[in-house]
Amino acid sequence: MQDKLQELTDKLYNEGLSKGKEEGQRLLDEAKAKAEAIVAEAREQAEQIVEAAKKNAAELKTKAESDIRSASAQALQATRKDIENILLEASCKSPVKAELRDTALLQEVITETARHFSPEAPCDLALVLPENLRGELEDWVSGKLAKTLDRGVSATFSKKMAGGFRIGPADGSWYVNFSDESFSALIAEYLRPVTRKLLFGE
Fold it and tell me: What is the pTM of this model?
């Protein structure tokens, strides 16, 4: 009886131990499978993150290079324009300003312009002259110029005008601008292509 009981006990123990080992192995296998799945998913996500980062970095690099090229082109164009303007200022604007402050030359240009002003329908003329030339030109306009043209001529003097003159009908309906700025701009436009060719080979 004792032997049978022992045999039964051993049998139950061995069966339980065997089942426990199987269950333990099953749980271990499941845990390993889950761990491998988690690792595989983590690797996939990491690869996706790395790929997205590479793509973003490439796009950022392309945009940065494009922005740098654009900024460089704009800076170069602005620098070339500044050089061109400095050269035109030195070669054209300053000499024009100086010449148009020469009262003898100014009187000659005003006289010739006024002579050809509406010859078919003579009208009284109005001049706008630089304030700084009032002393030299005011009496000349109302005296010698008016006598030479044989028509009414009046002059106003403006502090806004540095050199040159403006002329038009006395009624103010229109005028022609011969200020130093307009002369300089006109001459500069003719010189600009030559200047570009000399400086930049365009």
Answer: 0.50
